[in-house]
Amino acid sequence: MPRIIMHLDMDAFFAAIEERDKPRLRGRPIVIGADPMGGRGRGVVSTANYLAREYGIKSALPISRAWKYSQQAKAEGKPEAVFLEPNIKKAEEEGDRIFSYLITKVDTLQVASIDEAYADISSVKTYKNAEELAKEIKNHIKSKFGLTASIGIGPNKLIAKIASDEEKPDGLTIIPPQKVQVFLDPKSVRIIPGIGPKAEEELAKINIKTIKGLRSLNKETLVKKFGKRGSDWYEKSRGQDDNPITVDREIKSIGKEHTFQKDTLDSGEIIDSFKKLIRSVTRSIAKKQIKFKTVAIKVRFSDFQTLTRSKTLKEYTSSAKVLETESLQLLLPFLDSRSNPKRKKIRLIGIRAENLTAPLK
Ligand SMILES: [Mg+2]
């Protein structure tokens, strides 16, 4: 079966989370990174949202420079950028939630960083189906998490990664095998991982700037001039990459939440919805052949007070029955005065299986 690989990259992740959670930030340029200290700050930008990028502010730029660009924009009558320090814990939790969802949709998932992942989706069989799946994933991330992701799909990780960067933000780029070369040829040699500014300069000296140019050199010449790197470039410039998807980080949890149309304390309604969540989590667990050891639940009241309860079992299990019994035991006290003395109405419920064994490949 030919491989179909997906690369998903969240757009301006840290900044997007802040924008989502702090409405006052919406529509403003946001720079996440070190404290600019009025232009004297040290350190760099970690993420900038797309409005800030219009000012020339981007990842890895010195924060003092970002401050200067923002002040210049301000002098031109544009809005000043908001500088924030990264909330890594929040981003990690968000990433875990997104990847826990993603793993239920794909064959194998490799989480590559806090906000990007590769997935093998070969079982969908065709690029048309892959496109449908990518759209479904993007829509879900938008509606459930209030965030956008860019997705690239291709015959291997190299192409999927380059494709996900092609139409950022909120992009979807599909490169089936027969389009790989046309896609790569006009691009700068810099898109090849391993070709940095120095290698780019070396190549420019022999008048090679694009992938097409790089392909004009035969393998012997490349190896003679650049050693082992040369043979790597030879393959990558032809879109060849057989690196496997490796599950290198455990998904920390699989969970599901439900927000009621109207806040409620009707136990029948709450338990019904809760059982639906349990079934959905059970399906994900079964599909991925994962076992769990901890069951956690979450309750958010109408005043937004949010409480969680969890129980860690003696042994790993994948039993739907255990998940149901344990999670109901954690939930029920919230439906009466035991854990809800003021009888507050409930806005949201959630269930989560945590402490997982790694998914089987
Ligand atoms: Mg990203």
Note down, in words, how this protein is organized:
This protein has helices at residues 13-21, 50-53, 63-75, 88-102, 127-145, 157-164, 180-184, 197-205, 211-215, 219-226, 228-236, 267-288, 320-331; strands at residues 5-10, 30-33, 45-48, 82-84, 108-113, 116-120, 149-154, 172-174, 253-264, 292-301, 306-317, 346-356. The strands form 3 sheets. Strands 5-6-1-7-8 form a 5-stranded mixed sheet. The protein has 361 residues and is of the alpha+beta class. Helices cover 38% and strands 23% of the residues. Strand 5 (108-113) and strand 6 (116-120) form a beta hairpin. The chain is built from 13 helices and 12 strands. The chain has 3 domains: 1-175, Reverse transcriptase/Diguanylate cyclase domain (Alpha-Beta Plaits, 2-Layer Sandwich), CATH 3.30.70.270; 185-236, Orthogonal Bundle (DNA polymerase, domain 1), CATH 1.10.150.20; 253-356, 2-Layer Sandwich (Dna Ligase, domain 1), CATH 3.30.1490.100. Magnesium ion binds at residues 9-10, 13, 115-116.
